[in-house]
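Run Protein GrpE through structure prediction, thanks.
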Amino acid sequence: MDANETEALLAEAQAKAASLQEEFLRAKAETENVRRRAQEDVQKAHKFAIENFAENLLPVLDSLEAALTHSSTDLAKVREGVELTLRQLTAALEKGRVVEVNPVGEKFDPHRHQAISMVPAEQDANTVVSVLQKGYVIADRVLRPALVTVAAPK
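Sure, done. The structure for Protein GrpE is below.
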């Protein structure tokens, strides 16, 4: 192999290296763009989820404001209005996948329940006897554990 052939092979290898370098840089830039777009999509999804949840709460707010402007001495009507507003709030929470935890009769689960006391009871030991405050989960993640009393061992 003479010097001309070697120089030709070297020039060809350098061109190939430059081409591969350019392809690498393009692929790297595309990967970064995909990562950035995915991050932006996640941020938008969080933003719109919060907006959707807030929209679901607006009818509850409207009902409470209406109740304040219409004073009534009829206790039955006031109670009916409060019950309606509670149903609206419950529906809004359910649309946001917030679910009530009311574990009476279930086995005590320290991940979903917070025991306040143990009481003698007919149920098996470590069974929830009563709920002092309901708990709530969102998509199987505990927002607030239920405050419970638990059956003591016999």
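The chain is about 55% helix and 20% strand.
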